[in-house]
Structure formats: C-alpha cells, structure tokens
Design goal:
- This protein is α/β, with parallel strands linked by helices.
- The chain is about 40% helix and about 10% strand.
- The chain has 11 helices and 6 strands.
- It has a 6-stranded mixed β-sheet.
Length: about 290
C-alpha cells in the first residue's frame, strides 16, 4: 500500500483529499495509484442547479424527454466539483476520497439557479476560492483521460473499474461534456453509448436500485442514507467528496439488505430517469446496417 492512504480495514476517519490547481498533478498521481489498487469508485458532482425546466412533471417525462432537459442544462452551465471515493473490494469501506474543485463557474456572471447556489454556499462551497485556486476543467479532463479510470476499451463490459453513483444523469452529462470537449449529443442513445465508452458497463445507480426495492425508500441521498443507517464519515452533505463516500455506503447497504439473493448485476448500466435498452438499440442498428 502506498504511504499516505489509510488502511481501509482500520478504524480511522476517511480522508478526503482536496484537489486544487497547485496540487492537481500530484493528486492525480494518487488518483492513478488509487485506481490501480482500489477498483470500486463512487462518484458525485456539484453543479449550479437547473435553469431549464420541463413543462411536465418529471414523473410524466419519457427517458428521451428527460435527456432533452439534461442536455439543455449541462450545455449551458459549468461544473463546480467532482468527488471520487475508492474502495478495495465490493465489501470494503472507502480507503480514500478526492474532491476536485473546478474554477470555471462564477456566480457573478454565469447562469445558475440562485436557490441551488445559495444552498451550496450554505453547505460550505467557497465560490471565490474556486475561482482563484480551482482546477481548469480542461486540465482535469486531460488528466482524467490518462488516469486509467475512463475508456476501458471499446465501451465493453470488461472494465477494471466499477462505478457507483446516485441519480447520475447530470453527473455523467457534465463528465461526458468535459471528456469530449463539446456539447452533449442530440439523442439519448448516443449519450448512453458515450457513457459506456468512457465508464464501461459496470455502472450502478443507487437511486435506480432503490426504486426497485420492495418497500418505499427516500428519494434523496441523505434521506436514503439515514433510512439505511449509513453514516457520513467525513466532510459535509452536498460536497462532492463526502457525498461520493456516502453513495458507496448506500450502495453496499441496499445491495446487502434487498438484493442479497438475486444480486445487482441486472442494474448495471441503467440510469434513473434514462431507462433505455441500449443493447437492444445497438443490435437493431447493426441489423439495419447489415440489411442496407
């Protein structure tokens, strides 16, 4: 084990490493080491809320309609934080978490949801410091591409990394936009294909899993964690590093409490609100190509 990471089996407080422009390259060496030794990664992001809202209630939206709203917002806004928590095995607590603070968003000039920004400020995010000391998103994207965390190979299921998330349509939207350097694709199938290309087939959404439980469970991460008895070991709610660790705890608890018999493999690749059979779509597209 590389010096500096706590023993995940020990009774020690989770370390959330803060990543800024001045230590970005050094911290990405740690991230690459973590990826090699702790292949279970939970992820969260913070962003400036939602400014484009649908005309219908979210429960009435089709997956394609939901994606239209996600694309409109992600294309118009800037990412604020990315959190990554790493665990050694599917049953281990996180060994370490990273909180990458990005510099692009300025609430004085960029569009945002004022309520969301006030909420994030109350949760401890210092927007002025992010602007002064934060990471350039292009530098983050470049290092992420070379870290071994993304692009497992042709978007197949043989990824060395298992990703765990909570309601991650926006999270993946912002990361896909950063990694491609362009606006999100026009269609839901193309977006999901890019998610698979960058993050592989072992992607789990805890919110989707909770929606398939035999009993009602709260819809927010904090509410779900409280219901499941998951403790926040470090940091504050609505900061990406801390929330990524809580997401991992919620995944383990919901898996072991509700899906111990059938397992969770059937949930792989399904994002809440964007439920779409990508494999069926791609097979049909291949068949059309062969027949044309």
């Amino acid at each position: 084990m590389k010096a500096g990471f706590a023993n995940p089996a020990a009774e020690s407080k989770l370390e959330i490493r803060q990543v800024w422009a001045h230590n970005l390259e050094a911290e990405f060496e740690w991230i690459q080491h973590a990826q090699e030794h702790y292949p279970y990664v939970s992820m969260d992001t913070e962003f400036p809320g939602v400014i484009h809202k649908p005309s219908k209630h979210h429960t009435e939206l089709t997956p394609s309609e939901s994606y239209e709203g996600i694309k409109a917002n992600v294309d118009a806004l800037h990412l604020i934080q990315v959190g990554l928590a790493f665990a050694a095995t599917a049953d281990s607590p996180p060994a370490v978490a990273f909180e990458i603070n990005l510099r692009e968003f300025d609430p004085r000039v960029h569009p945002h949801n004022p309520t969301s920004i006030a909420f994030l400020a109350d949760s401890g995010i210092d927007f002025a410091r992010n602007r002064a000391d934060g990471v350039d998103a292009r530098d983050f994207a470049s290092l992420l591409m070379g870290s071994g965390l993304v692009c497992p190979g042709d978007g197949d299921d043989d990824s060395d990394v298992t990703w765990v998330t909570f309601h991650p349509a926006y999270d993946f939207g912002y990361l896909v936009r950063l990694l491609t350097g362009r606006h999100l694709p026009d269609t839901l199938p193309e977006f999901l294909r890019l998610v698979r290309v960058f993050f592989g087939g072992e992607v789990y959404d805890v919110k989707h899993m909770a929606s398939r439980c035999p009993c009602w469970l709260p819809g927010s991460l904090d509410g779900l964690a409280d219901e499941l008895g998951v403790k926040r070991e470090a940091g504050r709610s609505h900061q990406a590093g801390s929330d990524s660790a809580v997401t991992w705890g919620a995944f383990r608890r919901i898996r072991d409490k509700y899906f111990v018999n059938e397992g969770v493999r059937g949930f792989a690749g399904v994002l809440h609100g964007l439920e779409f059979d990508l494999d069926l779509y791609l097979a049909a597209a291949d068949a059309d190509d062969e027949n044309s």
